[in-house]
Amino acid sequence: MTQQELAEAAELSLRSIQRIEAGQLNVLMTTVVRLRNALGCSVDEILP
User: Fold this and answer.
1) Consecutive 10-residue runs of the chain (48 residues): their mean pLDDT?
2) Where are the domains of the chain?
3) Rounded to an integer, what distance in angstroms lies between the CA atom of residue 22 and that of residue 40?
């Protein structure tokens, strides 16, 4: 999945996805849930 596809699936901006991946953005739990839903994984797999 590309960053653009993830952004669209999670209803986030591409820039937000880029900043999350670079560790430049504090992520709200609602954003984590959106990412989890878009990726089809558990929250534990996303959070360190």
Assistant:
1) 98 97 93 96 88
2) 3-46
3) 21
